[in-house]
Design goal:
Strand content: 25-35%
Oligomer: single chain
Strand order of the largest sheet: 1-11-13-12-14-17-15-16
Shape: elongated
Number of helices: 7
Distance between the termini: 37 Å
CATH class of the largest domain: Alpha Beta
CATH topology of the largest domain: Aminopeptidase
Helix content: 25-40%
CATH superfamily of the largest domain: Zn peptidases
CATH architecture of the largest domain: 3-Layer(aba) Sandwich
Amino acid sequence: MQSSLVKRFILLLFLLSSLNGFAQDSVYVRQTIKQLTSKTFWGRGYTKDGMTKAADFLSAEYKKIGLLPFQGDYKQSFNYPVNTFPGKMLVIINGKKLIPGKDFIINNESPSLKKQATVDKIDSVNYQAGLNLQIVLKDKLTWSVATEVADKTIIQINKKAFAEIPKTINVDIENKFIPDFKASNVCGFVKGTKYPDSVLLITAHYDHLGGMGNDTYFPGANDNAAGVATLLSLAKYYAVNPKPYSVGFICFAGEEAGLLGSKYFTENPLLPLSTIKFLINLDLVGTGESGMTVVNASVYPKAFSILNQINAEQKLITKINSRGKAANSDHYFFTEKGVPAFFFYTQGGISAYHDVFDKAETLPLTEYNDLFKLIISFNKKLME
């Protein structure tokens, strides 16, 4: 009887420690998302050294966790062109000064422009002020990254925030085209105890949109600070619990500019791509009340079946949706090179995307713990 009580007590302690471990990971994830979305990293983009600072932060986290670099250094550097907006960001319509990011955004390919003009109507949503300036009324403002400069400045205005018909405009916009912006993928791994040359790879892009002018930046909490924080949490787990196989971790740069970091890595791999047994890419994983979707599910039906079986047995994610092949995140170029890969993203919750409202404080992280458990169990099953 006494022995039975002791066993139950030990089991209870084990369960409590496991729960505390997950709770601590949740705290770490939230803290990491808060850091990555702070002004310090300025949208992890192209002005105020945002992306460089983020790469340095991730390298330091890799070292702290105990990851090994793939080849001498955690960083894999590469270059690409990008259009940036480091300075002036003034738009006044009908005498009213508009707020960058909330009332208006500048089309990402726009050149610099300083101009005062009257506005002519083209149709119900399009206006122009001469040949080099166009105004577009939008229901929702979303931004992106451009790798070239157009010959016309385009201003998108939130018609819900500014209901007036544009009649006059005063613009002072500053762009800076950088032909060879330097970025870095951040790569590390936990060495396998028995089969170190067999690798399960977990990836997430850390770059976001950066800033628009001196005062406005795009935090990128769900896209993709949540994916990076989840990756780091998994790295902490595997560093403490090494497996027979190696587990690699890559935080990609340049995703928002066209999957450039993952494309560069697949063309200049730091490990033979043939050693990657499976890849899980995490992007937009900060929600989950409506379940999650797996890109490439129909391409790898056996692996998707295993994932669903684990999910059903452990009662984790409410629903896992199947999706086919898509070039919508960093898994894509690996798949093109023959590496089996899934891209996970969650659904439901906040609708903020590529705007100034994708903030850490509004990110629910509904399914973080369940997603963490699902990935751990899935990886374990893949190597049985």
